[in-house]
Amino acid sequence: MRIIFKTILLSSALFLTSCATIISGSRQNVEIASEPTSAKVYINEIEVGNTPVQQNLKRNQEYNLVLKLDGYETYETKLERKFNAWYIGNIAFGGLIGIIIDPITGAMHKLKPEEINGSPKSGTTYNTENGKLFIRISMDIDSNSEKVGQLKKSE
Amino acid sequence: MTKMLLLITVIGITSCSPKITSNFTNPQPKLSIDEKVALLDIEHELPENLTKVGELRFQDSGFSTDCSFNSLMNQARIEARKNGANIVKVVDKKKPDLWSSCHRLKIELYKYDGDVSSLPQYELKLD
Question: Which InterPro entries did the record assign (chain A) (predicted)?
Answer without folding.
Answer: PEGA
